[in-house]
Amino acid sequence: MDLRNKELLNPLIQRCLKNERRAQNDLYKAVFPYAMNIAMRYAKDQDESLIIVNDAFYKMFAYLKNFEMQGAFNIWVRKIVVNTAIDHYNSQQKFKDVFISMPEEVPEIPALDSLLDNYDAEHVLHHIQSLPSSYRIIFSLFAVEGYSHKEIAEQLGISESASKSAYHKSKIKLKQALSPESFTLSKKLRHE
Question: Which of 29, 59, 70, 137 has the most beta carbons within 10 angstroms of its beta carbon?
Answer without folding.
Answer: 137
